[in-house]
Design brief:
The complex is a heterodimer. Chain A has two domains: about 80 residues, Glutaredoxin (3-Layer(aba) Sandwich); about 140 residues, Glutathione S-transferase Yfyf (Class Pi), Chain A, domain 2, CATH 1.20.1050.10. Chain A is about 50% helix and about 5% strand. In chain A, strands 2-1-3-4 form a four-stranded mixed sheet. By secondary structure, chain B is an alpha+beta fold. Chain B has a single domain, classed as Glutathione S-transferase Yfyf (Class Pi), Chain A, domain 2. Chain B has a four-stranded mixed sheet with strand order 2-1-3-4. The radius of gyration of chain B is 18 Å and the shape is globular. The chains are: A alpha+beta, B alpha+beta. The interface between A and B is medium-sized, with 30 and 37 residues.
Chain lengths: ~260, ~260
């Protein structure tokens, strides 16, 4: 049996929700209220899933085994349930998906997450600041603990915001340039590359409208519409309980320490 | 035709080299002297516009990122598999590669740059160095080189890197106490990545990695060090760097059988 622990269909949470629907795999959905900072899944965390490398994110449980890191959950689903394939068979295309994934996790996503947390998480925490502060202090992973504490204190130095906007602009330009010449991000078909990037980009027209709009990024917007029109993506987005999944942000991943 | 552009056969440069030797794949080795800034020279930037090492060309197509190069080599050529067949172990292989790339590796290289690259660089003409740094294409690498060359890693940065190395070694020791290889029952690219990052650690951070504190890690390093592919990889080195790994040689077992 497949069980998915997830929050709102946005960011890292959204990726496995889309893939499970694309593959038509039945799964038990465990909706996690991430802002309550309660432990999940129900069983104690395994050695690897105890150490989040992408920040707050989903956990897939398959026959008792815990699988974390959203792109690697997608890879796992491809390895365990081949059809219908969402990963090109040519090694060079798979290599580009993995390399894009590294850019997303180490450059693009930390920046989007910082801007999203500042805008949406900070006000949401006001009502439950005391509980969150007490629980955040117990988080063993330092960058994640500090991410929650920054949101509680609304502490986002101007340099961090400027650097985050630079990184978002870099990623947006890269995707727009690719999509100007191709319907999908890597290769000629919809793939894990599109799921990986869509889950992060879906929030950008509202989060950074000056960077993502009809004049600046027409191809990126058309691609967002193309992905959103897929039945599996619609089904995943329909699992939102707030009706505004693109406003669901939690800390992570860490900004690269070398600049 | 496979061409690997690399510096010394350790850290990131060592990853595709060792994967190719393990797989039995023929490749052309092109040594790029990082200390002479050959990775930022115009000829190299036509191969890899980011100016980072290693780079790999297969029939003229650039394959990105050292960890990804290993997956590519395994997927593209016949030879012994370097990725587990079991999907869960394969997931674990990717998890550890990300942990090495994102957390442990950058911390170790901060030490390596601070103690090896930086001092070597400060022998050079300051004006020339300034001009060299200006030419580095990626902002992130410009910052890193500048900190390494001028020795300006803050003490808190070094302390945090030290903390991450110790924590990473602890996690790896615990994992290797449970299973023979990083991802599970078979040698994989996670072991290749880990070995290339950690082989110098018992020398550089002996208080963290040693036979008393981390016996499983030490046995794993020695076991990999004995592989013929590792010997062939080290033979591509031109500096003292890989000769330092002599500390992993097992001494002839004496009466106690110890290999301290």
């Amino acid at each position: 049996m497949l069980e998915l622990y997830h929050w709102e269909p946005n960011g890292s949470w959204l990726k496995p929700m889309i893939a499970l629907h694309e593959k038509g795999l039945p799964f038990r959905s465990h909706y996690v209220d991430v802002l309550a900072l309660e432990p999940y899944p129900d069983a104690p965390r395994a050695r690897e899933t105890r150490l989040p490398l992408e920040g707050e994110g989903p956990v897939l449980v398959h026959e008792g085994r815990q699988i974390s890191e959203s792109l690697f959950i997608l890879e796992y689903l491809e390895d365990a349930f081949a059809a219908p394939a969402l990963r090109p068979t040519e090694p060079i295309l798979h290599a580009r998906i993995l390399a894009q994934g590294r850019f997303i996790n180490e450059v693009f996503m930390p920046a989007v997450s910082t801007l999203g947390c500042q805008r949406y998480l900070v006000p949401q925490l006001k009502a439950r600041a005391a509980t969150v502060a007490a629980r955040a202090a117990q988080i063993p992973t330092q960058y994640l603990r500090e991410g929650w504490q920054s949101a509680l204190a609304d502490h986002y130095p101007p340099e961090l915001i400027a650097d985050s906007r630079r990184k978002v602009a870099l990623g947006v330009r890269r995707f727009e340039d690719t999509l100007a010449g191709s319907a999908w991000l890597i290769g000629s078909t919809y793939s894990l590359a599109d799921i990986d990037a869509f889950a992060i980009c879906n929030a950008l027209p509202t989060l950074t409208p000056d960077l993502v709009n009809h004049a600046a990024t027409p191809h990126l917007l058309q691609w967002l519409d193309r992905v959103r029109a897929r039945p599996a993506v619609r089904a995943a987005l329909a699992m939102s309980r707030t009706g505004q999944p693109e406003q669901a942000f939690a800390p992570g991943p860490e900004h690269s320490r070398w600049g | 035709m496979l061409t690997i552009y690399h510096w010394e056969p350790n850290a990131n440069s060592g990853k595709p080299i060792l994967a190719a030797f393990e797989k039995g794949v023929d490749f052309e080795s092109r040594y790029i002297d990082m200390l002479a800034f050959e990775q930022h020279a115009p000829e190299y930037l036509t191969v890899n516009p980011n100016g980072t090492v290693p780079a790999m060309l297969h029939d003229g197509v650039l394959v990105p990122e050292s960890t990804v190069m290993m997956e590519y080599i395994d997927a593209s050529f016949p030879g012994p598999p370097l990725r587990p067949a079991d999907p869960f172990e394969r997931w674990r292989m990717r998890w550890w590669c990300r942990y090495f790339d994102q957390v442990v590796g950058p911390s170790i290289s901060m030490f390596g740059w601070s103690f090896f690259v930086g001092p070597a660089m400060r022998q050079r003409d300051p004006e020339e160095l300034r001009a060299r740094i200006e030419r580095i294409p990626l902002k992130e690498r410009r910052i890193a080189w500048s900190k390494a060359i001028y020795g300006t890693f803050a003490p808190e940065e070094m302390a945090e890197s030290g903390r991450r190395i110790a924590e990473g070694v602890g996690h790896l020791e615990a994992a290797l106490a449970e299973r023979a290889w990083v991802a599970g029952n078979s040698y994989s690219i996670a072991d290749i990545a880990g070995f290339n990052m950690l082989a110098g650690l018992p020398l550089m951070n002996a208080q963290v990695a040693n036979d008393t504190a981390t016996p499983h890690l030490m046995e794993w390093l020695r076991k990999i060090n004995e592989r013929p592919a590792v010997r062939r990889s080290f033979a591509l080195g031109r500096t003292e760097l890989v000769r330092r790994y002599a500390h992993l040689e097992r001494r002839a077992a004496g009466p106690g059988g110890a290999h301290a």
